[in-house]
Amino acid sequence: MMDLESYKTAVIGLGSAICAGATGWLAFGRYMMRVRAGNSNDNQQINMLQFLSDQLKEAKSENAHLRDEIEHRDQTIREYWKTISETESRLQIVESQLEALKEQNEALKAEIQELIASSTNMACQLARITNGQEVPVR
Question: Can you list the alpha helix ranges (DSSP code H) found in the chain?
Answer without folding.
Answer: 4-131
